[in-house]
Every structure is written in structure tokens, then in C-alpha cells.
Amino acid sequence: MEPGTIDNLSILYQSSDFIVVNKHWDLRIDSKMWYETLTLQSQLKHRFPELADPDTYYGFRFCHQLDFSTSGALCVALNKAAAGSAYKCFKERLVTKAYLALVRGHVRQARMTIRYAIGKNTTEGMTHMMCIEGTEGCENPKPCQSELTVLEHGSYSGDPVTKVLLQPLTGRTHQLRVHCSAVGHPVVGDFTYSRGQDSSPYRMMLHAYYLRIPAGAELIEVCAPDPFVSSMDGSWVPQSVTRRLEDAIQELK
Fold first, then answer.
1. Is 176 a residue whose pLDDT tops 90?
2. Is there a domain that residue 3 lies in?
3. Which residues does the UniProt record annotate as the domain Pseudouridine synthase RsuA/RluA-like (predicted)?
4. Most buried residue, 12, 104, 109, 132, by CB count within 10 Å?
5. CA–CA gap between residue 155 and residue 157 (Å, rounded)
6. CA–CA distance, 193 with 178 (Å, rounded to integer)
7. Is residue 58 part of a domain?
8. What is the CATH number of the domain that holds 127?
9. Is 233 a catalytic residue?
10. Which residues form the domain of 168?
């Protein structure tokens, strides 16, 4: 997937009520900064000017969030009723989300449940970060759970990495990035949670792969194409398969 431009928005699903896009990495959903002209909001307005809703601040109702550095499936509601339907699904935890990631090191356990509570980091210079309970400056930690399934072991630019499927069972800010870092396997290219050390990859290797929202009469179910394949990124060299992605997703269903 090439970097985002104003006119290369990728659509995964479209109906009269919803659009699901494949968000580019290093792209904000929206921005109040005048100099940030390329956002998902501006891509949508460029592609679908007739669908922009003047009653909303950003023109479109985003049903959930993805970090600036994260790519993948993101759902947009096209009217107030659809937004309410999606919101209800998220509130009642009926939504299924699964992410693909390349993480540093070879994860030994085929499956892992990560349960570190996550709070806001109040340490000076780190207030843009989250942290796990028990670390210095961690304020108001809340219970969190993520499931990790190992898919493949391999290397990235010669360093050992593991391709994993991650399922957040709660929805805290930066949850998957913090959990992976906490178990000693930070996401490849995560500049923030490597304390500025992991800066050589062209992107952070976290991608919202699978999204399922049973929104009333409409079932939204999409997969955003896997970007972590060696044909798309020659730095990633898989060496052994632990579990097929298709099988892991089938089990989620």
C-alpha cells in the first residue's frame, strides 16, 4: 500500500449507510491544524463530496479511531441513524476487531493473553504516551485485555521478528502497542514506545485487518489486505508458519 495522497483512498465496503476504508499509515483521521491538509477526512471529501454532512464538524461520522501510524479498516457512518447503530454495537461490545502486526523478537508462546491495566503517563515529556499499571507516573490505570496469536516467525531487515494477530478485547488508547511493548515484543517501527529508538522502518507495522460490526439489519464484515507480505515489503522475510491467518480469523468468527 503506497503512502496516502488526496486521491488514492481505498474503499473496502460501501452501502447507503456506511463506508469502510483502508486507512493509510501516517495519516490522521481529521485535524484542527491548518497545515495538515491531507487527512482521511479530506480524502473522503475529495472522493465523496456529495456524502459530506454539513451538520458534523468533520463532514463525516467516524465510528471508531485508528492511530495516526496504524493502517487498515475504519468504518464511517453516512448518517445519524447509522452512527447511532454502530455506536450501540461498540458500546455493547458486539464489534470484532483483529489487527496484524510485526513485533520485535521471536514470540515463543503460540498464544498469549495480555492483561496489563493501562493508564495515562503523567511523566514529563511522556504525556502523549500510555503506560501499564505499576510504572512510574501511571495515572488511573483501567483493566485491559488483548489476545495474541503467533502466525509466522521471520526477520525484518535481518532482525528477528514475529508476525502476530492481535485482538483487543477492551478499547484503551494505544492498547495493542503498550501491551506488545510490555511483554517485550514492541511493534516494529513504533517510534513512540521504543522511546525513539525504532526509527528505521518506513512505517509502524500495525494494521487493522478484520472488522465485523453487526449494525442492525446490516452486517459489516471486511478484511483490509495484509500489507505484511514479502512481495510488498522485501525487508520482511518469513521463515516458519505457526498458524495460517485464514484459520485464525475463522476461529474468531
1. yes
2. no
3. 18-182
4. 104
5. 6
6. 7
7. yes
8. 3.30.2350.10
9. no
10. 10-251
